[in-house]
Every structure is written in structure tokens, then in C-alpha cells.
């Protein structure tokens, strides 16, 4: 009888062959702090497969040609390690990048905008405001360098015989010497070399790192499917062009071909910021000479100064127009460069600086320097302008959030403005601190600005007021710090019974329980960071406004302004001024020393490295002088490796396995894969900050929508996390009928006490060594098992259905 033939689906051999017809590959990506290939692969013998000394893929020597012998890898995949630590680490001198921290922080604010749908103009306005704040930081840094070199050294100290006598290397500039350089204009022209050299150094560093990072081309255009859409600007990516086909499924911003290729924007911004720096120096030099010529009859025609200042203003307007005119273009890979703008804008500013130097060097025998250069108003308007821009940014961000609210977004959408405010505060503290420390050094036993035994007038009054609010800010921060300490202690006490229940029926150990509870409670502090940032930013904005008002109203440093107001207030003002000044100097030294140690000491780097690596993960979309974006090299590397391997191994299975920051790189690389490749890839993340950090702070790029799309686009995904991990956490994705991505919280430690299997006390691992947990091997095996029998069949089924849900991540 014909029906007696058993159906093919009932026969085991029908499903067995696909499980072992192709080699399985596990691509390991390490996290913060880096790891050697030998550590990642667990073998001292490794070989480089592809890449260079900066970033490369390695294998065990015995696995170098694993694809040719699939029968050897039936139970375990071929392991590859992608090592990218060379992109973020280096020698101790690289710690000087920490001096660019305000630029990096304001660049972060660009990426922190809330999710927006259909708000193209608001998104573009958000980007413009952040870029203007970034431009103001460049001007602030250059103005501080001008304050030190032109005002404190060339104008004040060289113009005061007592100060110049203590600094013999300033003797040739002293008015008492009567030499060629003794005229104030010529001293200013010579001192302009210092801030101009600083701007040139920033341009050089940005250009060099641009050649190594932004100019690295990602996957070629033909690697993307012809039917794919890369979305509209208002949906995901700031300042991109609108998609004329809004009905086509949208690829998220991090998956667009132009996202990791920002060479055109970086080049435009570098030209604009370099020009802004040169123009700031030119304005300081020409402005002093023009003010003298307008106030007295002399040998220099007044129209020359007016012409130079007019050229500076006109070029400055062009700089602002360039910064506002164009943002990022992500939907296509923009290979063009604005050659004329890049060449002529900085060159024009440099020519104007040269004209300003020549104009100031004109002989003016009757010109003498006294007091300080009138730069107070410039610093006040610059600081006030930063505050106005941040407030406007907050209004735009709040409007975007109200349009598409997401409960997990930090500070109700105000994370970007808060971070931009912190960038301005960091810039003000660092630049003002340098000016104050130099003034104290030049004045010897005197205190600049106090009028007692002072040889020089000192830096602008506003900088002293800004330093004076630092102790007040630290006192205000004691309240939230105490709240966190009390909350953490209470949480640890509440966790005691929960921990003992997790390890029941093992006998309880009060000391062991208390230690585990403390670590879990401390790990939860990461989730309190947003409101701490909010408190600090709000207090900084209000105290900064108070500093501007106090300096404007009194025109004196706080110690002098409080004279006659009572002994208590006078003592408080003097203490705040002196303490703030020393705190700035001491903090600056600790800052650089800590950064140097972080690059030399692996344990210190793991402690603070996550913040630095988060900052340098993002492309330089707001500030071209920020530290370079390592992801513009790492993400294309990973995507290219996965695409190349799947194309040469048709039936192969691929698991990309990322720890910590490596999980963010892995997810970003998966987004960059073509639609035909992503269903053949499984994603394994552990200790991942994808949702806990990136999803909350960068909702437009890692929010619930993009992460759900990523889950649907890959074949399968598992995420391992621990309650003792201060960085990693769940990704909170559960799409019916798919199972939840998260597996956790995993037990940590693996054993509460001594057991026959584990006779020695087990450590509390926290963020490290996830591979030591048996759950890791189980999750990897599950992913490989899910990939094996379904890859050919499921890819065909998706093609027949024509659905885009799992391929539009």
C-alpha cells in the first residue's frame, strides 16, 4: 500500500545532515581594558589571520585552517579573537588626550538626543545647537591660551618691572629694557605664537587621527542588498537626508552605510574649528592695537585696524555658517570632500592672523601697557552664550521626548543638554584653572586681583568667580552622595535573605552573605548615575549664572566684592576663592596623572576605561578635535570579517560573542551586515551595557525599537548578565512568540560555600570571566544548535514570505 511509506519528516537523517555540513565559527570580541589573543583563546600559540598590529583577528595555531577540516569541529566551533585594544590604548603620552575631555563630552551630547519620529527640523536644530556649543568650547580653549600668553605674560608681567625682574626669560620683553620687543603690540604679536601653535597642534592631531580612523572605508556598497532602505533622517539619524520612500522598511541608523564613514563632516568641522581658533587669536591681537589707535592719535591710520577687524568678523560669520549648514549624511556613504572650504577657510583665517600680527607690530612709541587687557566682556558673553545654547538645547530635546516618550530614557530626554552643560563646565574649569595657576605663579607672594602686594592685575574676574563656586558645588554634592550611601546600605540589608534563598539549602554564612549583598548593591549604583548627572548639571547652570551676575555687578573678585559685608561672609568669600583656585590646580594634576596611570595599569583602565571607551565609541559629529572614534575602524573590521567568512563558507554557522564594550561593537557590526548574511549569524553578549547604558543614554540608536529590530534580524540572540555586574545588564527584549533574549541573573559566585566539586572558596566575578560560568557554554551550544538545522530552510522561508520584520533591524 502506498500510504505505508513513512513520511520524510519522521526520519532522523532528514534533519541530521545540516547540523554538521558546515564549520561553526565563534568570533570573540573583548571589552574594556583589552585582552591578548592568548588570553582570549586560552592558548599561548596563536596566529594572526587578518589585520595589522593595531587591530586584528587571531586563531589558535592548530585552528588556522579549520574550515578545511569540519569533521574536527563537530562539538566545538573554531574560535577567532578580534583584538582592538590597540585602537584605544598606548603609551603614557596618550593620556594627554584627556585634555580633550570637554570636546569628547560635548560630542557625546550630539548622540544623546531622544528618539524622534517625523521631526526632521527639530532633529536638525538639535544637531546645530550641539555643534555651536562645541564651537564655543574651541573658542574658549583658544581664548584661555590667549589669556595666559598675551594678557598675563606679554601684557601684564612684561609690562610690570617687578614681575619681569623675577622672570629673567621675560627680560627682552620688558618695557624697562627699551628693546625692539618692548612695545606692547610687538609683545602681543610674539606671544600670539603660543595659542596659534596650540590651534595648529589640534589641527594636526585631528588630521592625523582622521587619516587613521574616519578615512577607513567600511563595506563596499555592493555588499548591501539593492532593495534595502537606509531610512529617513527624522526617524533615526540626525541631519541625514529624508528618504523619498517612507513606506519602505527602515534600517536603523547604525546599520546605514554612511554611519561609520564621517570623513566629510569631520573635515568640514576641522576646517571651521581651526579657522575659529586662528580668528580668536587674531581678534585678541588686533583688538588691543585697534583700541589704542581709536583712543589716541598715532602713526597708524585707524582704517587699517577697522579693516582687519572687519575681515575677522566676516570670516567668523562664514565659520558659523559652515558649522550650522551641514551635519551628518548617513543614508549613503559620502566620499566627497569640500576641497575649497577645507583649504581656503583655515588659510584665510591664518592670513588674517598674519595681518593682525603685522598691524600690532607697527611702531607705536607712546603705547604703554597697564592693568589687564579688556577681555572680561568677551569671557562673560562666551559663558553666557554657552548657557543660552544649553537651555535652547534642553527645550528642543524635551519637545522631541514628548513626541516619542520612552520610560527608560534618562532625565526624560534631557540627558544630552545635561552632558553638554557638563562639557561647558569642564572647559571652563580646565581653562580657568590654568589661567589662575599661571597668574599665581607670576605674581609670587601676591594674590592676583586682591590688590595687596600684587604686581599684576590677574586673570578676568569671571574666572575667579567660576573657581569660587567649585567648593559650593562640592558641598551641594554631599547631599546626593549621602543619600546614595544610605540607600546602598539599606539595599544591601534587604538583599541578605534573598541571597541566602538563592543558595539554599546551603548553610548560611553571615560574612559571605554580607559581602555578596554589598557587591550587588554597589553594582546597582550605575542606575543612579542619570539623576546625579542631572543634579550636577542643574547646579552648574545655576551657579554659573550666579558667577556671571556676581562678576558683572561687582567687577571684582569674590574676596574683594565681599568687603564690608560682615566677617562671616568675607571669610567665606576668601575661603571659597582660594580653595577653588587650588582645587582646580590640584584636580588638574590628578586628572592627568590618573589618565596616565589608566593607560599603563590594566586594573585602573578597567575601572575608568568604560567611560572613556563610551565617549570614543561615537563618531566625531560635533567636535573634530575630540579623541578619535575607534569604532570607525572596529565595526567595519568585524562586519567585513563576518561577510567574508559567510561568503566563503556557504553552510557555515557563525556566532559573534562580545563582552562588555565588545558586545556594543558586535551589535553594531551585525547591523552593518547585508540582509542575506544576518539570518546566518547568532549573537552572544555577556556583561553587556547595550540597554543599561547605551539604551538609556542613547535612545535614538540603542533604544527599545533598534534593539528589538536587532533581535528580529539575527537568527538568535542570548544575553548573559549578573546582578553583581556594575556595567552589564539585561537587554529587556521579549518579542512574542520568541523567547526572551536575557539569561540571568547568573549565580555569582557559582558556589556559596565549599563543595565537593568546588572545594575552595569561589570568587565573586562581577563584570569579568563570564566564560568561567557553565551558562556561557550552554548558551553558545544552544545558539549553534538553533543555527544548524534551520539556516538553509529558514532563509528560504523568509524569502518566500517577503517579510521584513526579521531583516529590518
TrEMBL record:
Signal peptide bounds: none
Keyword Membrane carried by entry: yes
Positions of transmembrane segments: 95-113, 125-145, 188-205, 271-291, 303-324, 344-362, 377-397, 409-435, 463-486, 528-555, 575-595
Keywords, comma-separated and alphabetical: Membrane, Transmembrane, Transmembrane helix
Recorded coiled-coil stretches: none
Name of the protein in question: Integral membrane protein
Organism from which the protein derives: Streptomyces globisporus
Transmembrane among keywords: yes
Compositional bias annotation for Polar residues: 800-809
Positions of region (Disordered): 1-21, 789-809
Ranges annotated as biased composition (Pro residues): 1-16
InterPro entries assigned: AB_hydrolase_fold (IPR029058)
Amino acid at each position: 500500500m502506498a500510504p505505508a511509506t513513512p513520511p520524510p519528516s519522521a526520519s532522523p537523517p532528514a534533519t541530521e545532515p545540516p547540523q554538521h555540513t558546515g564549520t561553526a565559527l565563534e568570533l570573540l570580541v573583548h571589552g574594556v581594558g583589552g585582552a591578548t589573543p592568548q588570553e582570549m583563546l586560552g592558548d599561548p600559540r596563536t596566529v594572526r589571520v587578518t589585520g595589522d598590529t593595531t587591530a586584528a583577528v587571531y586563531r589558535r595555531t592548530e585552528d588556522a585552517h579549520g574550515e578545511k577540516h569540519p569533521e574536527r569541529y563537530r562539538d566545538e566551533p573554531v574560535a577567532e579573537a578580534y583584538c582592538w585594544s590597540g585602537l584605544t590604548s598606548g603609551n603614557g603620552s596618550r593620556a594627554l588626550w584627556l585634555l580633550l575631555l570637554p570636546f569628547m563630552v560635548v560630542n557625546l551630547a550630539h548622540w544623546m538626543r531622544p528618539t524622534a519620529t517625523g521631526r526632521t527640523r527639530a532633529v536638525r536644530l538639535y544637531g546645530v545647537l550641539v555643534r555651536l556649543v562645541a564651537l564655543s568650547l574651541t573658542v574658549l580653549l583658544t581664548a584661555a591660551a590667549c589669556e595666559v600668553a598675551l594678557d598675563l605674560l606679554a601684557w601684564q608681567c612684561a609690562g610690570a618691572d617687578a614681575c619681569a625682574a623675577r622672570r629673567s626669560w621675560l627680560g627682552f620683553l620688558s618695557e624697562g629694557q627699551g628693546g625692539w620687543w618692548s612695545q606692547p603690540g610687538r609683545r602681543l604679536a610674539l606671544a600670539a605664537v603660543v595659542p596659534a601653535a596650540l590651534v595648529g597642534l589640534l589641527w594636526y592631531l585631528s588630521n592625523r587621527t582622521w587619516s587613521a580612523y574616519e578615512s577607513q572605508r567600511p563595506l563596499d556598497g555592493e555588499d548591501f542588498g539593492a532593495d534595502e532602505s537606509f531610512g529617513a533622517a527624522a526617524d533615526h539619524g540626525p541631519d541625514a537626508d529624508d528618504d523619498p520612500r517612507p513606506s519602505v522598511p527602515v534600517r536603523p541608523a547604525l546599520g546605514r552605510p554612511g554611519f561609520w564613514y564621517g570623513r566629510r563632516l569631520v573635515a568640514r568641522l576641522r576646517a571651521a574649528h581651526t579657522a575659529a581658533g586662528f580668528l580668536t587669536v587674531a581678534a585678541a591681537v588686533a583688538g588691543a592695537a585697534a583700541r589704542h589707535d581709536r583712543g589716541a592719535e598715532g602713526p597708524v591710520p585707524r582704517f587699517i585696524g577697522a579693516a582687519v577687524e572687519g575681515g575677522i568678523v566676516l570670516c567668523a560669520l562664514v565659520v558659523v555658517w559652515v558649522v550650522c549648514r551641514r551635519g551628518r549624511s548617513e543614508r549613503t556613504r559620502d566620499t566627497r570632500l569640500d576641497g575649497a572650504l577645507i583649504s581656503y577657510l583655515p588659510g584665510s583665517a591664518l592670513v588674517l592672523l598674519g595681518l593682525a600680527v603685522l598691524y600690532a607690530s607697527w611702531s607705536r612709541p607712546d603705547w604703554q601697557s597697564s592693568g589687564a587687557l579688556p577681555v572680561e566682556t568677551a569671557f562673560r558673553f562666551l559663558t553666557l552664550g554657552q548657557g543660552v545654547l544649553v537651555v535652547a538645547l534642553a527645550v528642543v530635546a524635551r519637545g522631541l521626548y514628548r513626541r516619542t516618550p520612552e520610560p527608560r530614557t534618562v532625565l526624560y530626554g534631557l540627558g544630552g543638554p545635561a552632558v553638554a552643560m557638563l562639557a561647558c563646565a569642564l572647559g571652563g574649569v580646565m581653562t580657568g584653572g590654568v589661567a589662575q595657576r599661571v597668574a599665581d605663579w607670576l605674581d609670587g607672594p601676591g594674590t592676583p586681583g586682591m590688590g595687596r602686594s600684587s604686581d599684576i592685575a590677574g586673570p578676568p574676574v569671571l574666572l575667579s568667580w567660576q573657581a569660587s563656586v567649585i567648593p559650593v558645588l562640592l558641598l551641594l554634592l554631599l547631599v546626593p552622595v549621602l543619600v546614595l550611601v544610605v540607600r546602598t546600605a539599606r539595599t544591601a540589608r534587604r538583599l541578605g535573605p534573598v541571597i541566602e534563598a538563592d543558595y539554599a539549602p546551603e548553610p548560611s554564612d553571615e560574612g559571605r552573605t554580607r559581602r555578596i549583598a554589598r557587591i550587588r548593591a554597589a553594582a546597582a549604583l550605575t542606575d543612579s548615575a542619570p539623576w546625579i548627572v542631572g543634579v550636577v548639571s542643574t547646579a552648574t547652570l545655576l551657579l554659573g549664572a550666579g558667577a556671571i551676575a556676581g562678576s558683572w555687578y561687582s567687577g571684582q573678585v569674590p574676596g574683594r566684592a565681599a568687603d564690608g559685608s560682615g566677617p562671616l561672609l568675607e571669610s567665606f568669600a576668601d575661603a571659597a576663592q582660594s580653595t577653588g583656585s587650588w582645587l582646580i590646580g590640584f584636580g588638574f594634576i590628578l586628572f592627568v596623572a590618573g589618565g596616565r596611570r589608566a593607560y599603563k595599569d590594566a586594573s585602573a583602565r578597567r575601572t575608568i576605561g568604560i567611560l572613556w571607551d563610551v565617549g570614543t565609541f561615537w563618531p566625531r559629529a560635533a567636535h573634530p578635535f575630540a579623541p578619535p572614534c575607534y569604532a570607525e575602524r572596529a565595526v567595519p573590521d568585524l562586519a567585513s570579517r563576518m561577510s567574508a567568512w559567510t561568503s566563503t563558507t556557504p553552510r557555515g554557522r557563525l556566532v559573534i560573542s562580545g563582552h562588555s564594550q565588545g558586545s556594543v561593537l558586535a551589535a553594531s557590526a551585525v547591523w552593518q551586515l547585508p540582509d542575506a548574511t544576518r539570518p546566518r549569524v547568532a549573537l552572544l553578549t555577556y556583561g553587556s551595557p547595550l540597554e543599561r547604558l547605551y539604551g538609556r543614554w542613547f535612545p535614538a540608536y540603542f533604544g527599545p525599537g533598534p534593539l528589538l529590530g536587532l533581535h528580529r534580524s539575527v537568527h538568535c540572540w542570548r544575553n548573559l548578565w549578573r546582578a553583581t555586574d556594575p556595567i552589564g545588564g539585561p537587554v529587556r527584549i521579549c518579542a512574542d512568540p520568541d523567547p526572551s533574549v536575557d539569561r540571568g541573573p547568573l549565580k555569582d559566585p557559582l558556589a556559596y560555600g565549599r563543595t565537593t566539586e568546588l572545594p575552595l572558596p569561589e570568587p565573586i566575578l562581577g563584570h569579568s570571566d563570564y566564560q568561567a560560568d557553565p551558562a556561557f557554554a550552554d548558551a553558545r551550544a544552544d545558539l549553534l544548535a538553533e543555527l544548524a538545522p534551520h539556516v538553509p530552510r529558514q532563509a528560504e522561508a523568509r524569502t518566500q514570505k517577503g517579510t521584513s520584520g526579521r531583516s529590518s533591524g
